[in-house]
Amino acid sequence: MVSPTIGSIFPLLLPLFGLLLDLCSAADTISANRSLSGDQTITSSGGHFVLGFFKPGSTDRYYVGIWYGKDPKLTSVWVANRETPVADHSTSVLKIADDGNLVLLDSSGALIWSTAVNTTSNSTVAVLLDSGSLQLRDASNSSMVVWQSIDHPTNTWLPGGRLGLNKITGMTQRLTSWKDSEDPAPGIFNLELDPNGTSQYFILWNSTNNYWSSGTWNDQIFSLVPEMTQNYIYDFQYVSNPTENYFTYSMKNPDIISRFVMDVSGQIKQFTWLDNSQSWILFWSQPRQQCQVYSLCGAFGSCNENGQTFCQCVRGFSARNQSDWDLGDQSGGCVRNTPLQCGDRANSSNFQRDKFFTMDNMRLPVNNQTLDGIGSDDDCQLACLNNCSCTAYSFAGSRCYVWHGELLNLQDQYSQSEASTLQLRLAASELPSPKSNKKIVIWTVVGAAVALLVCLALIWFVVWRRRSSRLMRASKAVGGGLVPFWYSDLQRATNNFSHKLGGGGFGSVFKGTLPDSTPIAVKKLEGLQQGEKQFRTEVSTIGTIQHVNLVRLLGFCSEGTNKLLVYEFMQKGSLDTHLFKSTSTDLKWKTRYQIAVGTARGLAYLHEQCRDCIIHCDIKPENILLDDSFAPKLADFGLAKLMGRDFSRVLTTMRGTRGYLAPEWITGVPITAKADVYSYGMMLFEIVSGRRNLENTEEGNTAGFFPTLVASELMKENIGSLLDQRLGGDADLEELERACKLACWCIQDDESCRPTMGQVLQVLEGFLEVAMPPIPRSLRLLTETPENININFFYQTQNVSSSQSSQSKSGTSNSSQTRSNASNSSGA
């Protein structure tokens, strides 16, 4: 028998060697021996990001991109071939080319995309990092990076990435929106550094019109982005040197996942990932109002902040491309349904001269032309009709304004102080014909009695119509600016205030309904001593404050002594109804915890994110309203500001809400936002227990005071006994303990020892750990805490108050060594 020779075996071993080389390649690396095709992917070492082929939405176009590993919905952060998709990903390949570049080839072998760099070595590898960046490195020297995707952002700005300007080459690193929600091709909105070299960022439409600026950098924040002062998550850095200007950021907590996106809506948006809900939360966006985006709806498209959709075509026009509109790209605008009767058409036998459609409450389009020497609306209209290119006119302030060609930047239901009337030119067939003269003949033969009845009916109809039209305008304005109501309007909407929902220190609340069946809540204020001008000024201020966890103020009424506020109606009512007056278990622990988080988010917004800090002064379950899905919204958040500080003190001492008042209300010292923190803490106890804190203290039974029970059980590490018995122990014990500790911190006697609402929110969301709190002095008196109980635990934040430390020392007689051990055991 002849033994096989090495020469005959070696060809058979070559495929095996290739397989071994592939297996030895790292799971985050594309090498000369490993390429990607079809559904193959590589994943960063920590599993944070994935690189591979994907197709957005329902399209049949494939792209090479990077997306988050944790998000099941495939949220991409970078796209290689955003302008040139491939049709078949199974026959396309992403690989290292012979010249060392990373390239994408289609099924025919044609080059679709390349890193396009000149490398000193053709031996390179591509590695996907946990930062979301794809690096092209020298295979033998990993520190030699020749190209990385984070330097070429698409629509997403990741931590560590730069947005800037190279002063030598003139190259910019900018964010460019997708064309629409399913097309990564470059859209018309860009976020970039001012090319003139100033330290501010612009959002540009079509690379020409700047409609938003960050303001210049002042070494701490951008001047027009005050929200940066309330930052607990990011470290921002702006760098300017002779070669480049750029802005970058990093996460203070590397476990937090966040991103900035130049959205197809024309807004720059900041999202943060929440593991608990497996969803992205929108934290910030600019411009704040969607309709502030330049030409969002394209030519002859009108933006409306109050509509179900922001963009719609004006009268006589239809979407140029409806499929693009449905995907969020309205830049194509609208086209006429019927051509104008002008020029050759005006000489036809069936000629009907164009007419004008009146559009009230409009933001006028850009690029108007002023015609001098025209002193009336009729003359202005005639001047527009005599010019075939004229598409609209407006006569205001004895001036005639006309527009030629396309109309851009229209906005419907604009703010009343700046709104104008626009006359839109349309073909005659687009508008209804004049009333028939037959009605005149009929009226002439009708007897005097019938005529009198008709006149009375017309008068009644006009009065009714005016009232209904006001309410209909109010219905359409829901979600937009404040609506001024007549008192009679609200009488009609509430059926003469017959359905009372409840009442409180500021007045009574009644349910009402607008003509389009939109439910509203109307509050009649009592004891208000402000003048008309002051009331309207402060109401308009409150009306501009919008947050998902604040009840929306829709309008107001101020007629003499009648002062009323109109709010959105909350279907589930107030939190106290479900906590104290119901035997059902609608409020499971998860729901209660989300209510606590949402309330904290609304309060943090009032305290820390509004231009002026707003103190609520009356936090309690009655002022927490719930929508259909039990999402919380804080009510009466502006009434303390409306009533004034003096009235608030009288309210709390004479007929206030006992059991929620911070000690400083009693001592008479100036009130700060920490008074709301105290009230929030007392309410958090009630969310946990499902009963009033003062429920069993009416007869002097201090043992029934729930906060004292919490303090006692925390020491015993027996938190399960604190939960509402109706829940049957069904709760997340970690969240329960966190809530109880946090509530004890919130009700500290010394307000400097209480956390801010921003810190409260971070604790509830799991971004900060909370240590064992000291027992407030008032609770120690009630519970008669033994002297040998160690209470020197402190709240783990970036700054520890010295007053808190002194309070902890005064509350215990333990040695300094014991206190040190206690502090060490409460690590963040």
TrEMBL record:
Binding site for ATP: K524
Membrane topology of this protein: Single-pass type I membrane protein
Record InterPro entries: Bulb-type_lectin_dom, Pan_app, Prot_kinase_dom, Protein_kinase_ATP_BS, S_locus_glycoprot_dom, Ser/Thr_kinase_AS, SRK-like_kinase
Coiled coil residues, start to end: none
BP-aspect Gene Ontology terms: recognition of pollen
Domain Bulb-type lectin: 27-149
GO (cellular component) term, any one: plasma membrane
EC number: 2.7.11.1
Spans annotated as Disordered: 802-828
Subcellular location: Cell membrane
Residue span(s) of domain Apple: 342-427
Top-level EC class: transferase
Signal sequence interval, chain numbering: 1-26
Superkingdom per UniProt: Eukaryota
Similarity comment: Belongs to the protein kinase superfamily. Ser/Thr protein kinase family.
Record-given protein name: Receptor-like serine/threonine-protein kinase
